[in-house]
Design brief:
heterodimer; A: mainly alpha; Sodium/glucose cotransporter; 2 domains; two-stranded antiparallel sheet; 24 helices; about 70% helix; globular; B: mainly alpha; elongated
Chain lengths: ~575, ~80
């Protein structure tokens, strides 16, 4: 069977599975719709959290990004896993004990303030919207690359699939499909990863091959010969201070992302929330420890296959020909010697953030352009695996994108329907109306996701820094202080959020002025050496300091609020019914 | 019976445990894997430079272990102070 037939078959089967699960877990009440009836066991919730968290970008692009960054790629590996330690120790158990539905629920109630609730709801909607655009784009790209379906049609198919199980099953439907999607995506990632490790090192376990094989020495040697820095040497692309700041901002940002936090509301009790976080990181770690191995092996393999080989010979390799057609790989014989040279620098000039294949950049000798996505997408062919593995990779990429998109849709619709409509505008709304509004709120969210997927703003990659920055500087400190500082009051929390969010937004705006506002130059390059990606950690520190100072200068919170704090610190009673 | 004092003691024990585990988290991620990485790279784990290995593999294993230790220790604390479900 051809790759295309396999792809239709495997993608079709995986979609049928998601439909089936979505249909069997449809819900009839808001508790099921928002928190899956709180009946999800820790292992299943861990798998769902892992799929929720690992996006199209983690699945398709991250290994490629790491392979160009070398050691410095650790900012993503540590940044996107270390946050789970913060979640498990500082947030998840207490938010679960609070027994409400959303993040703004906690912020609004704890500070007895609809201003704080609205701020948190708006931050939630903004962060999720930024994120979902990237997911839908990922869906469209997978469809167009593997099935020759137009990107716009691919996006609409993706939206339709998500709409089905999210509207019908709410959080419950999303949770169980996410758990299934984890299985699909991890299988799709590990099979090619294992095959490539075995092919290049003779050791089938990527994590062991990473440490034990001599690939790290060999790639360091090649990179040095070609004028790159050593692959394993730190701080080649970013100074140490920025590496520290970015890692910190991504960790704290991860812990503050609403669609991740609400996954811990679905467990039966506080204890399961803790074990959920453990299982989530085990499942995430499986992919995140495979990715750097894949990155290093694939880079070594690509350079040694291409460099100093006659162009005609290179173009006869199947996968080179195929990926050169799709533009993920391009070779330009700049010096006309008929031989491929890999070197430092960009092979082509850039136009609008994309390489212009008609205009080779003659200022450097590099003749090869490699798209980040090629590292993962080309692995099955490079490792000479059967066509069905390529098809599985397509299903895996779709699973990663759809699972994250569905989690984001729940976060957005709950912020609109539960936090803004029910808690702020119409607190008397009866249960049936609330459920209906929850379902209806999915529609604008889906429409926005579809629109942004089909017409991606050029700055999607830039605004992701925004999402993490806002989560780190706004939501995380407000929740943390609400749990660990009994004396924290509304004045302190709101002042802290405004300072943190304000500082971070202004800084990112100034540093990313060209991408966001079309300015010719960034207004400032960095903030004392911290870039836009890492600025959230500074915003978080400012939020904490402001909140602590302001709260000490204003009256303590009323006793019934202090009683909430005392109650969430104790696990017992999390399973009791709560009529709200 | 859970007295006010016993709940305070439970919370203090919890915060102490969190402080210890987050210190390990901080040391692993920021000190060992970043600040000391250039120096640690002179040593090897198998064939991989040690600082590089920690930054791209070891730190993640430590994170997983930390959450597991926390969940286990809290099981014991919850029972000891009689606040479990």
């Amino acid at each position: 069977m051809s790759v295309e037939v396999w792809t239709y078959l495997i993608v079709g089967l995986s979609f049928a599975l998601y439909f089936y699960i979505g249909y069997t877990s449809r819900v009839r009440d808001t508790k099921g719709f928002y928190v899956a009836g709180r009946g999800v066991p820790p292992v299943a919730n861990g798998a769902a959290t892992a799929a929720d968290w690992m996006s199209a970008a983690s699945f398709i692009s991250m290994a490629g990004l790491i392979s160009t960054l070398g050691y410095d790629g650790a900012i993503y590996l540590m940044g996107w896993t270390g946050g789970y330690v913060l979640l498990a120790l500082l947030l998840a158990p207490y938010l679960r004990k609070y027994r409400k539905f959303t993040v703004p629920d906690f912020v609004g109630d704890r500070y007895a303030s609809n201003t704080a609730r609205t701020l948190a709801a708006i931050a939630t909607i903004f962060i999720s919207l930024v994120y979902v655009a990237g997911q839908m784009r990922g869906v469209g790209i997978v469809f167009s690359r593997f099935l020759a379906i137009d990107i716009a049609q691919g996006v609409l198919i993706g939206v339709a699939v998500v709409a089905f199980f999210a509207i019908l099953g709410g959080m419950k439907g999303v949770t169980w499909t996410q758990a299934a999607q984890y299985a699909v995506l991890i299988l799709a990632y590990l099979i090619p990863g294992v095959a490539l490790a075995y092919l290049l090192t003779g050791n089938p376990i990527p994590q062991l091959a990473f440490a034990l094989s001599d690939i790290s020495e060999r790639i360091n040697q090649i990179q040095t010969d070609l004028g790159f820095g050593e692959y394993t040497a730190p701080f080649q692309s970013k100074p140490m201070l920025d590496v520290l700041a970015i890692t910190g901002a991504l960790m704290v940002g991860t812990a503050g992302l609403p669609h991740v936090i609400i996954r811990f509301y679905t467990t039966p009790d506080v204890r399961s929330a803790r074990y959920s976080a453990f299982w989530a990181l085990v499942f995430i770690g499986l992919l995140y420890t495979t990715a750097p191995a894949l990155a290093m092996f694939a880079r070594y393999n690509l350079i040694s296959t291409l460099h100093n080989k006659p162009i005609e010979q290179v173009r006869q390799i199947d996968w080179v020909a195929k990926w050169e057609q799709t533009g993920l790989l391009k070779i330009a014989d700049k010096n006309g010697d008929g031989v491929v040279q890999v070197a430092k620098g960009k092979a082509f000039q850039e136009k609008g953030g994309k390489p212009d294949f008609n205009a080779p950049d003659m200022t450097n000798p590099n003749e090869v352009y490699l798209d980040n996505d090629i590292i993962v997408l080309s692995t099955p062919e490079v490792a000479r695996l059967a066509p069905f593995v390529i098809a599985l990779l397509a299903a895996g990429g779709l699973a990663a994108a759809l699972s994250t998109a569905s989690g984001l849709l729940i976060a957005m619709s709950s912020a609109v329907a539960h936090d803004l409509y029910y808690r702020v505008f119409n607190p008397r709304a009866p249960e049936r109306l609330r459920l209906l509004v929850g379902r209806l709120a999915m529609l604008p969210a889906l429409a926005a996701a579809a629109y942004l997927g089909i017409n991606p703003p050029g700055f999607v990659a830039q605004v992701v820094a925004f999402a993490f920055g806002l989560a780190a500087s706004g939501l995380f400190p407000a929740i943390l202080l609400g749990i660990f500082d009994r004396r924290m009051n509304a004045q302190g929390a709101i002042a802290g959020m405004l300072v943190g969010l304000g500082f971070t937004s202004v800084m990112i705006g100034l540093m990313r002025a060209p991408q966001l506002f079309g300015a010719a130059q960034p207004v400032i390059k960095d903030f004392f050496g911290v870039s836009a990606e890492g600025i959230g950690i500074v915003g978080m520190a400012l939020n904490l300091v402001t909140a602590l100072v302001v709260s000490r200068l204003t009256p303590p919170p009323p006793t019934h609020i202090q009683a909430i704090v005392d109650s969430i610190r104790v696990p017992r009673g999390a399973g009791e019914a709560l009529d709200e | 019976m859970r007295s006010h004092d016993s709940l305070r003691a439970y919370w203090r024990a919890n915060v102490r445990l969190i402080a210890v585990l987050l210190s390990v988290w901080f040391l692993t991620a920021y000190i060992i894997s970043i600040v000391l990485a250039p120096w640690l790279n002179q040593f090897r784990l198998g064939n991989a430079p040690l600082g590089f290995w920690f930054a791209q593999q070891g730190s993640i294993y430590v994170f997983i272990l930390l959450i597991w230790v926390y969940a286990r220790r809290m099981d014991a604390l919850d029972r000891q102070y009689d606040v479990h479900e």
